[in-house]
Amino acid sequence: MNNNQLIALALQNDFDAELAMYDGMPEHRFSLRFRRRMRKLLGGGVPEWETKRVPLRKAVNLAIITVILLAFLTGATLLIYKMWDKFQLHDVGKHSFLVALDIEGAPTTLEDKYRLGIDLSGYSENVLLDNEYEYLVEYHEVNGNRVLGFSQSIKDHYQGESCWINTENAMVMPTEIIVNGCKGLTFQTYHGINVLIWDCGDYVIYLSGYNIGQDELISTAETVQKVE
Amino acid sequence: MLQFYLSMVNSGEDKALVEFLYNEYKQLMFKTAYAILRNRESAEDAVHDAFLRVINHLSKFRSYSCKENVSYLVIIVRGIALNMVSKSNWQAELDEETPDGLSVEDSVLSELAYEEIVENIKALSPALRDIAYLSFVENCSAGEISELLDMKINTVHSSISRARKILSRKHTENNQ
């Protein structure tokens, strides 16, 4: 292998690792303005449902009816994939959307802060989101190839079809897990990213690890605590 | 201008391709832009602008494989996002002269270890990394990169040269 081929291989691996990290991030809900602009740009090619703002409750009902109808028509292969105490996971082929169940009385804005309690001195911090609904941060190991993703979000964020997670060809399919006495789920993406999502009472916490084993990730999850 | 772009997506085949790219990759493109801009609206603007550029170069996307399309979309939207952060800084970074003044031919081009290259990649700016990716991995010509990233061809040439030099450094040089 010559130098150019080695460089190409290294660049390709670097690029793939970056894309893999994006897989572990929660899906974005595009604004109405963006969807309208894209609809114009594509000459009306984007389906109508993409551009209309549907009330949340109506969207949830529509989604449930659609899933049931499709399941009926296709021989019940597209039903709710899993249902636990705190979450429902709907498998729709390439991805799944996650719905938090226990939202009664949950805060609608981030009133308390939850953060990782481990020593992160060897990591660089990259805050991707910090608003009243969600806090999302990535920690990249300075002298290594490990990446931790952490997010705290309100439970309303996990309603309807707004929160998609990448379970396509997952190496470990979602299973229930208990973190600090709180129920949640864990899975490993196709790219080997371990993911933990749990309901800490008032909020949903999301933790992902690239090049971090599941046991270590669970230990890390157990350090998550409310901070002042 | 919008009408001009729209007129280019008139054929059903083109429309289907753009729709496919939009539906499949808008999330990935948004996340890429957001990682740089850290603002939802700006990231959405970057995705929108990226699609304008995609439509402008649609003929290229028709012949690419899915994997290539992903790479190009990510690189295009990242280029736009970086430009939005600071066009002058980014351009200045690309135009910057190489510090040691050595030509590519003078740099060490043999017996490079993979681990050294991986270390060297960390020394590349995001913009240079993308140009290197297009050049080394996708084998794009300077002209093609210039079109995709909306840059001057001379800047692309010098960027490829600079990226190659950084990537080819021996570890001992880095540590000096």
Describe this structure in words.
The complex is a heterodimer of chains A (228) and B (176). Chain A has 228 residues and is an alpha+beta fold. Chain A has one domain (3-227). Helices cover 27% and strands 33% of the residues of chain A. Chain A is globular and about 55 Å long. The N and C termini of chain A lie far apart (54 Å). Residues 45-52 and 76-80 of chain A have low confidence and may be disordered. Chain B is mainly alpha-helical and 176 residues long. Chain B folds into two domains: 1-85, Rna Polymerase Sigma Factor, Chain: A (Orthogonal Bundle); 96-176, Winged helix-like DNA-binding domain superfamily/Winged helix DNA-binding domain (Arc Repressor Mutant, subunit A), CATH 1.10.10.10. Chain B contains ten helices and no strands. In chain B, helix 3 (40-56) crosses helix 5 (66-95), helix 5 (66-95) crosses helix 7 (126-137) and helix 8 (142-149) packs across helix 9 (153-167). The termini of chain B are far apart. Mean pLDDT of chain B is 75; it is low at 1-6 and 90-110. At the A-B interface, helix 1, helix 2 and strand 5 of A face helix 1, helix 2, helix 3, helix 5 and helix 6 of B.
